[in-house]
C-alpha cells in the first residue's frame, strides 16, 4: 500500500497511517493498540494547521486521522496514495468533500457520535437561560438574595412554550424528544427532511421566518458549509421575540456573530446559550464575556469521558479495518464509492 521515507531510510512495504492533529507525544492509547500490527506504520506528525503542513504530513500516507485540520484540494491532489481520511467526530467542514471525491479519497466520520451528549447540553443551556440559573448564582454570591430574586421576571414556564430547531438531524431529533418530555411544543426548519420524519417525531415543519417569529427558544443544529456560513444574521434575529433565547451547539460560523452581539446589546432577544463561536477560543475581552444574559461553554457539548473513549477506540478500529481492505460504517462523501482509490 505504499512506502514511507523516514530520516533518509526506506522502510519495508507497510500500510502508512498518519495522524495530523495530535501532538507527537499524545498517548492515543486506543488508536495505538488497534494499529499495533507488523504491516502498519503509524506516525504522529504533530498539529498541522495549514494545508501545506497537512500535505507534507500525508504525502506518502495511505490513511490519515484528523481532528479539524484543513484538508483542501491541494492536499488531495498532492497525496497520490491517500485512500481515506478519518475525522474524529461528526463535522467535516474542514475537509473539501468535493475534492476528496474527485481524487477518490473516502472521508470517514461518525455521525452517531455524541448525539445524546449534545442534545443534553443544548437542553441544559435552554434550561439555564430560561430559569436564569447562572445569573441567579452570580448575584447571590456578589449582591445577595434580594438582588437575585429581583431578576426573576420575565420568566416563562417552559411547559407549553415553543422550541424551534434549525435543522432536524440526529441531534435535533434527540433534543425534540427531550423537550417534548417537558411538555414543550416543538417546531423545526429543515427543507431536506421528509414530512414523514417530522410526523414521526411529532414536530411541526415551518419556514425559517415562522420559526423565528414563533419560538420562545431557538436551538441551532446546522452543519457548516458554503450555504450555511453566516446564515443566521440580523434579519433572523430581528424576527425573533424579544423574550426569546438563542442556543447554539452546532458551529459558530453559521451565525453572523456581529449581528448576534448587536441583537443582544439592543434587547432584540432575551439572551443566548453558546457552546461554539466564529473563532475559537474566544478571548476574555470578547463582548459575549461581558453580557449577563449570555451563558458560555468552551465547545464542550460533545464531551463525556465514556463517549470520547468509545470514539478513540472506533477511530483505531476503523483505521485497521480500512488497512485490511474493509469498508467503514459511515462515509461522508458517498459519491466516492464508485471511484475510490484501492
Keyword list:
342 residues, Rossmann fold, alpha/beta, 7-stranded parallel β-sheet, elongated, 2 domains, 15% strand, single chain, 34% helix, 5-stranded parallel β-sheet, 14 strands, disordered N terminus
What is the topological layout?
Blueprint: E1 5-6, E2 9-10, E3 15-19, H1 29-34, E4 40-44, H2 51-58, E5 63-66, H3 73-78, E6 84-87, H4 97-102, E7 106-108, H5 115-130, H6 133-142, H7 145-149, E8 162-166, H8 170-181, E9 185-189, H9 195-201, E10 204-205, H10 208-214, E11 217-220, H11 234-239, E12 245-248, H12 257-265, E13 271-274, E14 294-296, H13 305-323
Parallel strand pairs: 3-4, 3-5, 5-6, 6-7, 8-9, 8-11, 9-10, 11-12, 12-13, 13-14
Antiparallel strand pairs: 1-2
Helix pairs in contact: 5-8
Structure description:
The chain is an alpha/beta fold. It has two domains: 5-113 and 305-338, 3-Layer(aba) Sandwich (Rossmann fold); 115-296, NAD(P)-binding Rossmann-like Domain (Rossmann fold), CATH 3.40.50. Helices cover 34% and strands 15% of the residues. The chain has 13 helices and 14 strands. It has a seven-stranded parallel beta sheet with strand order 10-9-8-11-12-13-14, with helices on both faces. It has a five-stranded parallel beta sheet with strand order 4-3-5-6-7. β12 (245-248), α12 (257-265) and β13 form a beta-alpha-beta unit. It is elongated, with a radius of gyration of 23 Å.
Amino acid at each position: 500500500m505504499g512506502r514511507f521515507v523516514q530520516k533518509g531510510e526506506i522502510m519495508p512495504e507497510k500500510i502508512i497511517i498518519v495522524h495530523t492533529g495530535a501532538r507527537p507525544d499524545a498517548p492515543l492509547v486506543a488508536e495505538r493498540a488497534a494499529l499495533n500490527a507488523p504491516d502498519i506504520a503509524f506516525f504522529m506528525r504533530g498539529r498541522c494547521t495549514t494545508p501545506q503542513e497537512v500535505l507534507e504530513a500525508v504525502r506518502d500516507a495511505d490513511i490519515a486521522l484528523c481532528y479539524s485540520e484543513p484538508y483542501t484540494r491541494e492536499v488531495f491532489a498532492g497525496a497520490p496514495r491517500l485512500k481515506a481520511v478519518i475525522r474524529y467526530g461528526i463535522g467535516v467542514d474542514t475537509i473539501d468533500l468535493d475534492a476528496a471525491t474527485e481524487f477518490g479519497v473516502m472521508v470517514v466520520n461518525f455521525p452517531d457520535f455524541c448525539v445524546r451528549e449534545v442534545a443534553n447540553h443544548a437542553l441544559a443551556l435552554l434550561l439555564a437561560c430560561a430559569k436564569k440559573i447562572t445569573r441567579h448564582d452570580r448575584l447571590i454570591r456578589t449582591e445577595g438574595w434580594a438582588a437575585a430574586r429581583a431578576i426573576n421576571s420575565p420568566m416563562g414556564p417552559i411547559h407549553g412554550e415553543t422550541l424551534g430547531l434549525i435543522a432536524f438531524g440526529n441531534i435535533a431529533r434527540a433534543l425534540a424528544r427531550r423537550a417534548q418530555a417537558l411538555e414543550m411544543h416543538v417546531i423545526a426548519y429543515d427543507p431536506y427532511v421528509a414530512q414523514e420524519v417530522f410526523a414521526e417525531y411529532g414536530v411541526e415543519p415551518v419556514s425559517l421566518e415562522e420559526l423565528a417569529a414563533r419560538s420562545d427558544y431557538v436551538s441551532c443544529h446546522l452543519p457548516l458549509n458554503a450555504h450555511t456560513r453566516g446564515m443566521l444574521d440580523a434579519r433572523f434575529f430581528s424576527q425573533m421575540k424579544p423574550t426569546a433565547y438563542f442556543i447554539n451547539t452546532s458551529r459558530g460560523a453559521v451565525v453572523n456573530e456581529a449581528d448576534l452581539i448587536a441583537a443582544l446589546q439592543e434587547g432584540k432577544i432575551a439572551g443566548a446559550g453558546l457552546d461554539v463561536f466564529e473563532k475559537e477560543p474566544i478571548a476574555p475581552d470578547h463582548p459575549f464575556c461581558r453580557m449577563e444574559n449570555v451563558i458560555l461553554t468552551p465547545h464542550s457539548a460533545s464531551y463525556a469521558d465514556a463517549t470520547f473513549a468509545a470514539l478513540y477506540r472506533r477511530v483505531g478500529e476503523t483505521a485497521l479495518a480500512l488497512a485490511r481492505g474493509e469498508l467503514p460504517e459511515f462515509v461522508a462523501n458517498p459519491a466516492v464509492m464508485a471511484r475510490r482509490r484501492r
